[in-house]
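Backbone shapes recur. Consider a single case.
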Amino acid sequence: MLTLLICGGWLMHEFYVSLTEIRYNTQTESFEVSMRIFPDDLDRALLERTSIHTQLASELEHEEADSLLMVYLLEKFTMVVNGEELTLNYLGKEPESNAIWCYLESSKISIPETITVRNTILTELFPDQVNIIQVYHEKWNKGMLLNHNENSGSLRIGE
């Protein structure tokens, strides 16, 4: 009986995670950023900030949802490459079953050597939020896990 209660408690526990893929495009000399995030978590974050029920990726999506999401993402996610903070542009979003893919693109940067990523998305709401970061450059890739306590990390590209 005790085992059932303990296991049942684990089954009911929600997890909070996002995935961010960062790919350097050698032709455009820019980074392409794709973020997979649960829309209900984003809705809650935007509601806390704006008091607007955005209802992302639904037929009832608020008309300002996309611009509110853009402001939120650009505030909570930054990239510094070779010591220079990159300008990020919000390209849009698309739903995927129970998640949303959000897309950003960086300003031009030639030959990235180092990258520092700060990702505080949803950490203000969920102390156990984990933001998985995966960085790709040609055949090299490396990942890092960011969270409420460690919200930024650096990588040396190629190592």
About this structure: Strands lie at 17-25, 30-37, 77-81, 84-85, 88-96, 99-106, 114-119, 130-137, 140-147, 152-156. Residues 16-156 form one domain. Residues 39-50 form the longest helix (12 residues). The two ends are 50 Å apart (CA to CA).
